[in-house]
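User: Teach me something about this protein's shape.
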Amino acid sequence: MNLPTGFVASSAAARPLHLVDRVRTPQWRDALAPAAQAWADAQGFDASPGTVLVVPDANGGAASALVAIGDALDPFAYAHAPRMLPVSDWTLATELHAAERDALLIGWGLGSYHFGRYRAPLRAPAQLVVDALPDDVRDVLAACVRVRDLVNTPTQHMGPDELERTVCEIAEVHGAKIKVVSGDDLIEQNFPAIHAVGRASHRAPRLIRLDWGHDAHPHVAIVGKGVCFDTGGLNIKTGDGMRNMKKDMGGAAHAIALAELVMARRLPLRISLLVPAVENAIGPDALRPGEIISTRIGVHVEIDNTDAEGRLILGDALTHAAEDAPALLIDFATLTGAARVALGPDLPALYANDEARAAALLQASDETRDPLWRMPLWRPYWRYLTSTVADFANSGPSRMAGSVTAALYLERFVPAQQPWLHMDTYSWNDTDRPGRPTGGEAQGLRAVYAMLQRFAASR
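Assistant: First, the predicted structure itself:
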């Protein structure tokens, strides 16, 4: 049986693992043997969330361990355990109901994660003994790992070509159809904004499209921003701002992983995945401030800032996705620093033009403990995108409401009657935290999947 890192099918030497919390502190302490109680007191262990206590045996080895958690339904409540416990096999000695068990398994898997393509881990994680992972848990965990791996891979190994290859490999596994429009064919087939952003790179820009499912099922279109590296273009980023721009395809990583998850679970949906994949490079043919570009929808956009490129490629992709009038249109994008200033790195901004869809996603976000925060499509701020020579601009001189104006720009390419959800996500952990190593991160993915499960079941 193939199990993800951090899990083992059986072990004769496994030690008992107890989950404890501060609410039930007297109960777990009273259940310990006197020597173990004395040891817990000597260590000052009070079951604060995110801590562990290894109880020694008479020979100085580990007899058992206590893992302190907070919210039992939050996967990250358990994610510290694999790296804080001794490298050994552990068997759960605490009864959990199904939702808590699933949270434990996902959290243990995320806490065991290491991006090992270029460097081996300094140590292996502790292993949890399981008979098997439930199929749904296994696939959700794999989707989160897919996002992390894609975002963590540097641009020389994850450019538009490699992103296309990844989607093609997934399509082959699940029997999906693939269509790719690249290079100058983007102009011929009316994707001019995608071409304009990516034309300066030595790697051709492209639109990758995957289609899967039966026509009888509800159609969901999933779009992901695939800027495989963002220099900022001629409005070049600072060194600090450019340092981690391999992650600017984080929206594409989420969209790809979500589509793969829907197919793996065979939800009764028909899905279209659209990934505009480019590099925002600097070169002789780079997009210049002041240029006016055409778009698939037929409007002309003045380039105020070449570093506001993600919304340009998404505009063409959203237009194309909406042409099929899906029941729901979803996009993920590492779109604005303004969203991070407003909400910080852990909280993606959610924009929606449909109240019922937004409410369903926020409910799923709460249930899965995968946070999102609703932001307003405050249309009076459209004034910040005015142009004197084109229909509108991609940015403007004001620093006000940058995340809102970016979402308003995208909304211009979505028909008014089309239900649409937009997530402005960071896709990154700036610092190492338990279960959240520095690097790529899946944010909002579990929530959207849970919402789609319910959506598919209700149709």
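Now, about its shape. The longest helix spans residues 135-152. The CA atoms of residues 155 and 272 lie 25 Å apart. If you'd like, I can walk through any region in more detail.
User: That's plenty for now, thanks!
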